[in-house]
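Dear colleague,

Thank you for sharing your sequence with our group. We've completed the structure prediction you requested, and as agreed, I am returning the results in plain text so they can be pasted directly into your records. Please verify that the sequence below matches your submission; if there's any discrepancy, let me know and we will rerun it promptly.
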Amino acid sequence: MLISNLLRPALLVLAACALTACTPKPAVDATVRADRLAGGVRMITVQTPNGAFKVWTKRMGDNPRIKVLLLHGGPGATHEYFEALDSYFPAAGIEYYYYDQLGSARSDQPDAPDLWDIPRFVEEVEQVRQALGLDKDNFFLLGHSWGGILALEYALKYQRHLKGLVISNMVASIPLYNRYAQNVLMPAMDPRVLTEILALEKSGRYDDPRYEELLMNHFYVEHILRMPVNEWPEPVMRSFAKINKKIYVPMQGPSEMGASGKLERWDRTADLPKITVPTLAIGARYDTMEPAQMERIAKSVQRGRYLYCPTGSHLALYDDQATYTEGLIRFLKDVDAGRL
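Please find the predicted structure tokens below.
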């Protein structure tokens, strides 16, 4: 969607065809030393209503005041498309953590449908935060697409632990996303193409190669990543290849023209003023998300900033990379310096 559109498993098939200023506690010191010896990789045990499972994290860089935990999209994708940040964060002196949410890639993948809901994911993020020793003196949470929903929900419950929040390419309301898709994105498509896509959806043919072809040529390259598909970056393709459809479809729904799963009625617009920590909302001109709604996040929270990517789409991290990374790094450093 916005989330879904980012992470459609079928598009991979087509592509193939075509943080503290204080002294850390000893336990954290030991963890940091162990992470360095293991290349920064750490499997963290999280408790769920269905028992204990392990999730994969990897620490990059070293900065006691700026530590960014990355929440990937999907639901059910992987951290890998965030690898674009490897070209920017280290030079800026930013510490960051890759993290595959439960059910994704290197983390455990339990066959437990009742685990795939927002409150349970929020508690998972909190357990990961605790295990990594992140706190209000250093902890920045960056969520992209579905990860933006998760980051927003985390902030509404646990913002006392945050130093800063980044909501990237995600609006605060799925009903408003669906309205934008219906009223703006779909009417902008070739009417014949749209008619055929909707007919395929009505008949439940979501895995039909023709459905995938139409979406790729008339939607994905316009609104997900504005590059020829044979030039899509390898980390993006690698991440898409591992999407867990057992999470993605129940939460997002099978359609690429809107959300219809568990997230269909999600709306936190009225709760945005409750967020008091410095917040960056990132929007892009060609995104599946309405840019005005992403700007609305920045205007509604108490200490917000909006970053607009004029040539970007849902993956503005790639197709408007300079704007995205420069604005993101500026935000992190401004918050650290007390300028926001």
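Summary note from our side: Residues 1-37 have pLDDT under 50 and may be disordered.

Kind regards,
the structure core
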